[in-house]
């Protein structure tokens, strides 16, 4: 207002946003600038534009004499004066706006500050939109000093103290206060009205009464106008100024949750009305009056938004007019069409754009599902779920997707349709992601039963893959491979490239868990190639992670890191910034970082991975991360913390019946107890792990197990051979329940540590330099070189023993000697030395075929 270029400034915004408060504050600051005075002209009680001039003249105590017009007298009176006119609430007398231009042209030293719910749209006008107050994030409430820097919080506390002098911001009420201000959209009037209720209610209690805002937000000060005494009256004032078509569009916009694109409201109105409604003009008018807002989306499209306080009033009007049913049905129809249009695109090159579109419309899709289920329209609800499940999986909405699918599938059990088959597929896949393998088995069994009726080979192939996946997790590798081969044959028969790619990945995964890394890499790369050919980025991160896992086990950390970075980059592009693939990628990078010597950063990455898995409630991911955190924490010489991680990991893996993770945790707990001088219990847990490993497969154990053989030798020596084998065999015979009872009841926590044991386990984050290893390689005996050569081919202890016609115990002894001579502490490190530093000269045969 001090600028010489500005003579008319209009403060616009929705009712209750604080335009008058701001204008008065500005006027106060400008008192010295305008030497002839600042004049306040209230127009709230003026509804006739013809009376605006009279109201302004009354401020200057002017009257009409003879034939001289009032306008001329006003201009003559203020023409040479330096004054500011504050015209408050101009929205209802906008036809009088040209009068202001005439006055300003005649009076160059006069300026006007106007408050209005919409711009005046006259020459020379500058508009400043008054927005709701900035708000803190209720999910991440800042410290008190930062929090009280937010104007919304300051205003709440100011009015709270006005009604309750001893009111304080405390740890108990701070979250409720933040949520209240957010719930009220940062509108000053709403915050003021809410704070007045603190005479009766605590902020926490008041928040629970805010399910519907408008009935609560009443009881304003007596010295304000009636329309500002409640939020409903304030909004009604704006609504009553709309024409009939604007009111109709305003009401219908209330069915959209979190806003909509302009074409959505156009489609909704076209569905309801026979005659077209001029949506563009009416929507623009609502924007001008600040009853709705516009915001550019990530794709550049304009999105229409309505503050929740305004939306609540609009919904009341919609219900009162008897329009709710037809509007919500049209809304549900529009979003059903959108979901089904998006479904095939989620597997194509434009999937990123469609994922973002569905994310933006997620609240509307939820609203549509709620409406359809409330109307018992299970058929349309099932169609939405069948179309959306990939989106739910790809964006990490697993729990929500599962709840919708289970609920709606339960209500349509008599349907034998392709739609139900799609929905069952989605429910089954989500159950697998959530580690609920028993539920997944039931769902895919039901899906397979639809095959005879529907005759769709894809259903049979999908069911085989799902059953094989469950069997793989239970360690039934041979049965799993048979299922995958059946599935692959069916997919090849119907030329389903997506199905072929997925099956190849599953077969790669199975090969890896049986130690056949060469086959696993070949199958994984073939799967990735097909997905790249199809342009299906959604499945690439999973395959890239699998390949990176194999390379990590082989010690090829740099190649693994390249694949991990590519996987995470694609996940980011897809918007999966906190999903399964991202979390699993962090887990692998954490281990690589740890083994490369940056232990602190490696543990931090694993902790971040664990946090994401917990947020997503992916139980297998949680157990997996806990297991490796336990091992790596022990490497950092903190056995007490390691035991905490490992016990939780074991508990979760037992509930999941995941024998692979159980062995990881049992191995780790045995190491912890060995370090804590509880050597008998260590041998007992290792015995149980050994027996459990045999049930996974008759040939091999999970390859990612962190090796503990050097520590076994130390424990064997400490106990003596007889006591060691007695404890080992006792552990092999114990049930899961007995093991768990022993852990929580019989095995005490202790601060004692055997430093020699600890050093045996925590030899180094990195292996010895190559020169040191090369100096020692000549010390390997011929038999040790044979054993090492077969191990590098992926053979297990039992397979090595069978090949060399020796006992597994002898193989174990040779490996312990090899580790000591090479200066390594794990099987993977020994393999890495042998393969990448060319330590072996002998060709040991066709290990990959074993």
TrEMBL record:
Q: Name one GO molecular function term.
A: ADP binding
The GO annotation for biological process reads: regulation of DNA-templated transcription
| Matches recorded under Gene3D superfamilies | P-loop containing nucleotide triphosphate hydrolases (3.40.50.300), Tetratricopeptide repeat domain (1.25.40.10), Winged helix-like DNA-binding domain superfamily/Winged helix DNA-binding domain (1.10.10.10)
Instruction: Provide the HTH luxR-type domain boundaries.
Output: 773-838
The source's domain of life comes to: Bacteria
Read off the PANTHER family from this record.
Answer: HTH-TYPE TRANSCRIPTIONAL REGULATOR RV0890C-RELATED, REGULATOR-RELATED
Query: What is the protein name given in its UniProt record?
Result: HTH luxR-type domain-containing protein
Q: Which organism is it from?
A: Reticulibacter mediterranei
């Amino acid at each position: 207002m001090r600028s010489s270029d500005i003579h008319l400034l209009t403060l616009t915004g929705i009712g209750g946003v604080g335009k008058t408060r701001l204008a008065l504050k500005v006027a106060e600051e400008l008192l010295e600038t305008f030497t002839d005075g600042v004049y306040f002209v209230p127009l709230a009680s003026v509804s006739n534009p013809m009376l605006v001039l009279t109201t302004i003249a009354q401020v200057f105590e002017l009257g009409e004499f003879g034939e001289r017009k009032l306008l001329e007298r006003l201009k003559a009176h203020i023409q040479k004066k330096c004054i500011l006119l504050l015209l408050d609430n101009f929205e209802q007398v906008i036809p009088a706006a040209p009068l202001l231009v005439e006055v300003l042209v005649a009076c160059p030293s006069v300026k006007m500050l106007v408050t209005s719910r919409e711009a005046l749209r006259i020459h020379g006008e500058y508009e400043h939109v008054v927005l709701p107050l900035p708000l803190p994030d209720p999910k991440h409430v800042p410290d008190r000093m930062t929090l009280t820097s937010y104007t919304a919080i300051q205003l709440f506390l100011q009015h709270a103290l006005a009604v309750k002098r001893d009111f304080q911001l405390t740890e108990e009420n701070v979250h409720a206060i933040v949520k209240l201000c957010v719930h009220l959209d940062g509108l000053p009037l709403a915050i003021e009205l809410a704070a007045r209720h603190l005479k009766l209610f605590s902020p926490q209690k008041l928040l629970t009464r805010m399910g519907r805002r408008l009935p609560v937000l009443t009881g304003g000060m007596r010295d304000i106008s009636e329309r500002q005494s409640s939020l409903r009256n304030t909004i009604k004032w704006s609504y009553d100024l709309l024409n009939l078509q604007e009111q109709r569009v305003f009401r219908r916009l209330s069915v959209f949750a979190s806003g909509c694109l302009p074409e959505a409201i156009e489609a909704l109105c076209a569905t309801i009305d026979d005659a077209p409604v001029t949506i563009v003009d009416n929507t623009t008018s609502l924007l001008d009056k600040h009853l709705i807002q516009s915001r550019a989306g990530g794709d550049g499209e304009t999105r229409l938004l309505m503050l929740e306080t305004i939306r609540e009033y609009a919904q009341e009007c919609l219900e009162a007019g008897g329009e709710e049913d037809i509007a919500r049905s049209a809304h549900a129809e529009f979003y059903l069409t959108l979901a089904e249009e998006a479904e095939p695109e989620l597997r194509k090159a434009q999937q990123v754009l469609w994922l973002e579109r569905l994310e933006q419309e997620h609240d509307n899709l939820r609203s549509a599902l709620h409406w359809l289920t409330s109307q018992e329209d299970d058929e349309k609800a099932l169609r939405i779920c069948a179309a959306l499940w990939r989106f739910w999986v790809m964006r990490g909405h697993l729990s929500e997707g599962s709840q919708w699918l289970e609920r709606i599938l339960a209500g349509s059990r008599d349907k034998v349709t392709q739609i139900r088959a799609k929905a069952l597929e989605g429910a089954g896949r989500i159950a697998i992601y959530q580690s609920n393998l028993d539920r997944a088995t039931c769902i895919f069994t039901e899906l397979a039963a639809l095959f005879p009726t529907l005759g769709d080979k894809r259903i049979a192939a999908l069911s085989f893959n799902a059953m094989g996946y469950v069997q793989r997790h239970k360690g039934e590798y041979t049965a799993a491979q048979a299922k995958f081969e059946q599935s692959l044959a069916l997919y090849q028969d119907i030329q389903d490239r997506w199905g072929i790619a997925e099956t190849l990945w599953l077969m790669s995964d199975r090969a890896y868990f049986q130690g056949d890394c060469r086959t696993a890499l070949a199958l994984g790369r073939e799967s990735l190639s097909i997905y790249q050919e199809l342009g299906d980025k959604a499945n690439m991160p999973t395959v890239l992670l699998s390949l990176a896992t194999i390379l990590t086990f082989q010690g090829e950390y740099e190649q693994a890191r390249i694949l991990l970075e590519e996987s995470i980059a694609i996940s980011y592009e897809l918007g999966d910034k906190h999903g399964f693939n991202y979390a699993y990628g962090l887990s692998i990078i954490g281990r690589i970082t740890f083994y490369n010597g940056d232990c602190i950063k490696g543990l931090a990455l694993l902790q971040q991975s664990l946090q994401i898995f917990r947020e997503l409630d992916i139980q297998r991911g949680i157990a997996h991360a806990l297991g490796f955190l336990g091992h790596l924490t022990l490497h950092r010489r903190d056995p007490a913390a390691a035991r905490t991680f490992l016990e939780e990991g074991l508990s979760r893996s037992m509930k999941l019946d995941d024998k692979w993770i159980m062995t990881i945790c049992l191995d780790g707990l045995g190491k912890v107890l060995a370090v804590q001088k509880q050597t008998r219990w260590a041998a007992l847990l290792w015995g149980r792990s050994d027996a459990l490993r045999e049930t996974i497969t008759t040939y091999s154990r999970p390859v990612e197990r962190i090796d503990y053989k050097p520590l076994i030798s130390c424990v064997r020596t400490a106990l003596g051979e007889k006591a060691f084998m007695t404890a080992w065999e006792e552990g092999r015979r114990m049930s899961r329940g007995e093991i768990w009872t022993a852990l929580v009841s019989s095995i005490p926590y202790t601060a004692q540590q055997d430093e020699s044991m600890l050093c045996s386990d925590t030899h180094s984050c990195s292996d010895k330099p190559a020169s040191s290893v090369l100096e020692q390689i000549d010390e390997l005996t011929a038999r040790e070189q044979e054993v090492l050569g077969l191990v590098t081919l992926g053979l297990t202890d039992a397979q090595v023993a069978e090949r060399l016609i020796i006992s597994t115990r002898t193989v174990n002894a040779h490996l312990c000697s090899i580790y000591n001579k090479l200066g390594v502490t794990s099987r993977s490190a020994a393999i890495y030395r042998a393969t990448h530093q060319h330590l072996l000269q002998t060709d040991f045969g066709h290990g990959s075929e074993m």
